[in-house]
Amino acid sequence: MPKESFPSSYVCDCGKESDHFENTIREIKEKSGRKRQALIADDGEHKIIFYHGDMVAMYCPKEQREIAVINRAKGPARPQRTRRPSISAIGVESKHEETETTMDARIQKNDIAEKLAQKMNSTNEKAEEWIDALIETLYESFKKGRNVTLQGLGGFYVKPKGKTWVFKFNPSQRLRHLFGWSSTYKGD
Question: Are residues 172 and 154 in contact, defined by beta-carbon separation less than 8 angstroms?
Answer without folding.
Answer: yes
